[in-house]
Design brief:
alpha+beta, 6-stranded antiparallel beta sheet, 19% strand, globular, disordered N terminus
Length: 235
């Protein structure tokens, strides 16, 4: 009997073969090309990412917003101090767009102008315009993301973008420097897209797209309107 069947065990009809224990299934799972029923299969890079996020959260390196709680990062006053840190005087610029101008901005920026008024400030040093800071909102998934963009004049380049308030339940990782620093130096001529010019972060894709759209819009506002604006006088 044994010589006829070789080293394979006989399977008796009516009797189900016993499943391997969990430890045996885990050992088999490590063999290339083998799949174990009931096992969860994810790419190695995704496992590493999830492990890193969990470790950072437990270590307290992510504030509550990064773990799902809405958070205010900068007040209006704090953001403006960041925008004009060198003793520049800054004055508000009244930006109210007609339907025609709004349509032109949307066409060039490929982004929706959500408000007829965008809050902008002109920075002046020694009688010369040094740049602009514009505060606006973009919709992430369902709620507004309030952000500020500082544009250098006359280069028309983004010096930085700061998220002031993030209201979505997840995705606040877009407020941190490893994402926002990628906007530095971009101009109205750059095709700013999440996943191309700037990163597209898993779990925050819509927020990445929102800030990319917002930067295109503010750059077009600068290029079409602010660039040739004279120095604003007090009062």
């Amino acid at each position: 009997m044994e010589s006829a069947m070789g080293s394979h065990a006989a399977v008796i009809p009516g009797i189900r073969e016993e499943r391997p224990r969990l430890s045996e299934r885990c050992r088999r799972a490590r063999r290339p090309g083998m799949r174990v029923p009931g096992a969860v299969w994810l790419p190695k890079a995704m496992w590493l990412t999830l492990t890193w996020i969990a470790a950072m959260g437990l270590a307290g390196l992510f504030p509550p917003a990064a773990l799902g709680q809405p958070q205010q990062f900068h007040s209006r006053e704090e953001a403006l101090r960041l925008a004009f840190p060198n003793g520049e005087t800054f004055r508000p610029v009244a930006l109210a767009f007609s339907a025609e101008v709004q349509s032109k901005i949307e066409k060039k920026a490929k982004a929706k102008v959500l408000r007829e008024v965008i809050e902008c400030f002109q920075g002046v040093s020694q009688g010369q315009v040094t740049g602009y800071a514009c505060i606006d909102n973009e919709i992430g998934r369902e709620r507004f993301i309030t952000y500020m963009i500082r544009i250098d004049h006359p280069a028309g380049e983004i010096r930085f973008i700061e998220v002031m308030e993030y209201r979505e339940a997840v995705g606040a990782i877009v407020a941190y420097p490893h994402f926002t620093r990628r906007f530095k130096g971009l101009t109205a001529k750059d095709p700013i897209r999440a996943g191309m010019t700037v990163p597209r972060i898993i779990g925050a894709t819509l927020s990445c797209r929102a800030l990319a759209a917002g930067s295109r819009k503010i750059l077009q506002v600068y290029d079409l309107y602010l660039r040739n604006l004279p120095v604003q006088r007090a009062g």
